[in-house]
Design a protein that fits this description.
This protein has 273 residues and is an alpha+beta fold. Helices cover 26% and strands 26% of the residues.
């Protein structure tokens, strides 16, 4: 925290921190893997660059240089003695001033790491997940910058995720205000038709995912045709295959879309004959 190693149970912030009240925290998610050549962080430079880009969109001055953030991430992993972990850098405003405008509040930076397996469970990687097209619409890029990884954006995501899980699904897919597919609550999305791969463009209102970019690069290097294009809910349902990508989700196949899950409250409306 702010350049110093702090024990987990003492890594606290003040209740009046601006980012707690107004969602003004910038964060990242990266992974470190235990490989045959030792622990390696996947695309660290790109994650740090996106961290700073998100802050730039919101005019947040990060009080450390990119190289300092990268070095601090490596130090935190080493000091925690973990070979594999999830990495969460976060920049947030403190409690110096109260009010919507964060100007005048000190910017703090913290980095946490912890072991974290498959985001949607180990079974999801093998057998895929059930997903729902959410009734909640993805935030409009004219209202919030979707390319910035800011805490406030994820209020939209948590509504979709909670709704999906309440209805018996593992994950949600959000459409934008034009009815086009955007992404999951915390993942980018791809579909495959006759061997060709498609993913929504950034202009649809999706986060520029690091794993998304990796999928595009790898697919093209293997000779697959991959396009960034708008597509509808119907296109998604009729696709041969669908999968999520993301740092937390990694590559997670989608098994079913809009196949009704079990609603624990549904049975009370059914009258036996």
């Amino acid at each position: 925290m702010d350049g110093e190693l702090v024990p987990w149970d003492k890594a606290t912030v003040h209740v009046m921190s601006h980012s707690l009240h107004y969602g003004s925290a910038i964060f990242e998610g990266a992974r470190c893997y235990d490989t045959e050549i030792g622990s390696r962080i996947f695309r660290l430079d790109e994650h740090v660059k996106r961290f700073f880009n998100s802050a730039k969109v919101y005019g947040m001055p990060i009080p450390f240089a990119p190289d300092e953030i990268s070095d601090a991430i490596k130090t935190t992993i080493k000091e925690n003695h973990v070979k594999e972990c999830y990495i969460r850098p976060i920049a947030y405003y403190g409690w110096d001033e109260v009010g919507v405008n964060p100007t005048g509040n000190k910017v703090h930076v913290a980095i946490a790491v912890w072991p974290w397996g498959a985001y949607m469970g180990e079974d999801s990687l093998k057998n895929g997940v059930k997903v729902q097209v959410s009734t909640w619409t993805r935030i409009d890029t004219r209202s919030m910058p979707a390319r910035a990884k800011i805490a406030a954006n994820y209020a939209n995501s948590l509504l979709a995720k909670m709704e999906a899980q309440r209805l018996g699904f593992s994950e949600a897919i959000l459409l934008n205000t034009e009815g086009m597919v955007t992404e999951g609550s915390g993942e980018n999305i791809f579909m495959i038709n006759k061997g060709d791969i498609s993913t929504p463009p950034l202009s649809a209102g999706v986060l520029p995912g690091i794993t998304r970019d990796s999928v595009i690069q790898i697919a093209r290097s293997l000779g697959y045709k991959i396009t960034e294009e708008n597509f509808t809910r119907s296109d998604l349902i009729l696709a041969d295959e669908v999968f999520f990508s993301g740092t937390a989700a990694e590559i997670t196949p989608v098994r079913e879309i809009d196949v009704k899950g079990k609603d624990p409250n549904f049975s009370k409306w059914l009258e036996p004959i």
